[in-house]
Design goal:
Blueprint: H1 9-17, H2 23-41, E1 44-47, E2 54-59, H3 86-93, E3 96-102, H4 136-143, E4 149-154, H5 160-166, E5 169-172, E6 192-197, H6 200-210, E7 237-241, H7 251-266, E8 270-274, H8 282-297, H9 315-328, H10 334-357, E9 360-364, H11 380-385, H12 391-396, E10 400-408, E11 411-419, H13 424-436
Helix pairs in contact: 4-5, 6-13, 8-9, 8-10
Bound molecules: glutamine (GLN).
Pfam families: Amidase (PF01425)
Protein name: Glutamyl-tRNA(Gln) amidotransferase subunit A
EC number: 6.3.5.7
Length: 447
């Protein structure tokens, strides 16, 4: 059987059952492809030659026993965790192994993959473009068929945005759905782990595998996602937030998103305009809470317990530690952190109100398609603005899906589908129905 590496997870499982090929052959095909293409893409930081299970690529902020885990930072250059993250153990019981650790922005801080201490990952659709971030290597590895699927982490968009820019599916689960034990903490009140993958149905399957209670994560509330057949519900109400289509959204991306919404309407959905009035404050609130928690979480990398000195932090990490320390300092705490926490509540309430009128909300994932490597790296504010449509889901703790919905200048565009807390099922149904009537995911980058 040719082309083992282009199969979806479901197809791999079926083919293994039918003995069309062995796990050994599957891993060999992937290792060969990785050897050929990784030098071009820089998607993997470490490759595991001895994987004998279904090969998954794991973002390098997720701890893997006996496999180096650097968070793409020099400060953890030699860190080999003595234990597996809970998600790795859960995948293991399903027959899934780690084929490699993927490049990302250092400590998951970034939107382009360029903040890695080990060099940028390239977008498989155009090697001069960024793949998005921070789960840059995970998204590039899936798009280039260098793994069956990948895990990423999403604190402000880091699963959805690179999935969108690389033309693959990405699912950020409800906060608390998936254990973060073994995930290197960035912003503990936003961090989630989820799949970056080749189809919506596969995303549902992986969510079922990795969700559910874990005593090792106090915020993992124990609601396991149970996959049901993703059947389209007629008369589903889809909300389109007017704030997500204003200034800043590239007109060509806007057109692609509007066409996708039309397609959903043709499928029988009821399309309604909704409003998320506090959206304009989301970015400011996000970066205050994000940097505050970073300044606290990264205090553990003090050069004593983790070998190397703090000089080994990159620019963006240092910037955020300083901003967060400032925001939390006495005299400024009320003005910044407390205010941001209040905005967070308002944003959550915006979604609750909108969801009284609709079942899911759709819009763009990213205001533009992938940009040139180097284009935004010296302008943090412009870089932060690329997260404008993704961060609100993290502030509100709700699930969100990114699915391929077209191209602009041969670069992929992702449609975002946001749902009520704990209702991944409905966003997956919408994504699945859309996927069935379109062919975007069959389009592959030429490498
Ligand atoms: N790009 C956002 C940031 O830099 C989100 C990162 C993430 O989700 N890890 O914070």
């Amino acid at each position: 059987m040719n082309d083992l590496t282009s199969l979806t997870l479901t197809e791999v499982i079926e083919s293994l059952k039918d003995k069309k090929f062995s796990l050994n052959e599957l891993n060999k095909s992937y290792l060969e492809r990785i050897r050929k293409l990784n030098p071009k893409l820089n998607a993997y930081l470490a490759v595991n030659d001895s994987c004998q299970k279904i090969p998954a690529a794991i973002k390098d902020v997720i701890s893997t026993k006996d496999i180096i885990t650097t968070a793409s930072s020099k400060i953890l250059a030699n860190f080999v965790p003595p234990y597996d993250a809970s998600v790795i153990k859960m995948l293991d019981t399903q027959g899934v192994g780690v084929i490699g650790k993927t490049n990302c922005d250092e400590f998951a801080m970034g939107s382009s993959g360029e903040n890695s201490a080990y060099g940028p990952t390239k977008n498989p659709w155009n090697l001069n473009k960024v793949p998005g971030g921070s789960s840059s290597g995970s998204a590039a590895a899936v798009a280039a068929d260098l793994c069956v699927f990948a895990l990423g982490s999403d604190t402000g968009g880091s699963i959805r945005q690179p999935a969108s820019l690389c033309g693959v599916v990405g699912l950020k689960p409800t906060y608390g759905r998936v254990s973060r034990y073994g995930l290197i903490a960035v912003t503990s009140s936003f961090d989630t782990i989820g799949p970056i993958i080749k189809s919506v149905d596969d995303a549902a399957l992986v969510l079922e595998w990795i969700s559910g209670e874990d005593k090792m994560d106090g915020n993992c509330y124990g609601k396991k996602f149970v996959r049901t057949p993703l059947r389209w519900t007629h008369n589903i109400r889809i909300g389109v937030p007017r704030e997500y289509f204003g200034e800043g959204l590239d007109p060509k991306v806007k057109k692609v998103i509007q066409d996708a919404i039309k397609k959903l309407e043709e499928l029988g959905a009821e399309i309604k305009e909704v409003s998320l009035p506090h959206s304009e404050y989301a970015l400011a609130a996000y970066y205050i809470i994000n940097t505050s928690e970073i300044s606290s979480n990264l205090a553990r990398f003090d050069g004593i317990r983790y070998g190397k000195s703090r000089d080994n932090f990159g620019e963006e990490v240092k910037r955020r530690i300083m901003l967060g320390t400032y925001a939390l300092s006495s005299g400024y705490y009320d003005e910044y952190y407390v205010k941001a926490a209040k905005v967070r509540t308002l944003i959550k309430q915006d979604f609750e109100k909108a969801f009284e009128k609709c079942d899911v909300i759709v819009g763009p994932v990213s205001p533009t398609v992938a940009w040139n490597i180097g284009e935004k790296i010296n302008d943090p504010l412009t870089m932060y603005l690329s997260d404008i449509y993704t961060i609100s889901a993290n502030l509100a703790g709700i699930p969100a899906l990114s699915i391929p919905c077209g191209f602009v200048d041969r670069l992929p565009v992702g449609l975002q589908v946001l749902g009520k807390a704990w209702d991944e099922e409905t966003i997956l149904k919408v994504g699945f129905a859309y996927e069935q009537v379109t062919d975007w995911r069959k389009d592959k980058p030429k490498l």
